[in-house]
User: Fold this.
Amino acid sequence: MKIRFIINPISGTKKQQGIEDVIKNHINFLYEIVYTKKGGDATELSQKAISDKVDVVVAIGGDGTVNECAKALIGSNTAMGVIPCGSGNGFAYHIGMEKDIKKAIIQLNNCRIQTIDSCSANGIPFVNISGIGFDAHIANLFANFRKRGFVSYFKLIVKELSYKAQKYTLNFDGKSKTITAYLIAFANCSQYGNDFQISPLAKMEDGLIDIVIIKDFPKWKIPAFLLRIAKGKVHLSEYVEIIQYKEMTIETTNSLVHVDGEPIELKSPIIVKVKPKTLKIFLPNGKK
Assistant:
């Protein structure tokens, strides 16, 4: 088996510094290392890996790097692995990768290839979590933050809690539903990262996407609500509704969306789709 590591040298909190020596000392496969220099490079490097018939591309970075790699790898025979070196690392932690870099590298020696779902928002692929509303607002502000990491992210959330819920119209299964929501998350996996689980029961191979609606709720309940997210119990809240479907159309005046944590502008309506069994991943043995 041949592995190609794609390292984003500026991702997250720079945990990837010196990772080349860890790979050299602990990987049992034939491998090579390449580096990104700018946005979009991980997609091009992954496309090259496909043409070179590389078995596994391992994204060393955060969910943004994972997304760039996945864009190329969806529908191919090359699998995607990940070493968590970003600010959140939601996809990596969902599939069971270790938080410690050395342990995560060693994990790769005992992985298997499994095929999972991918998703899209107006045709733009994602594999973990995307959404509209408060989380997209935070993603947009965080993208310009000089200091990365969970502490900076959490401080930003607290600072922006005055964000107001907005109206959205959801169209699915021939029905239309207008709601006022703080955010709507499109979840293929369970968490944003750092064990903040927005859809604790989400499965990446069930052929469905979890549409997580956080309804407007009293601001004084925010600390308890954030605690529910941290404990993986947000789905039990009276202010949360989760709808599982293969496709949903969302009408909105809000054009700001995040795709695997990366903010973008999308025109309404936003069409969210699941694409069953379209991405091969390198999954640690013993994980589901």
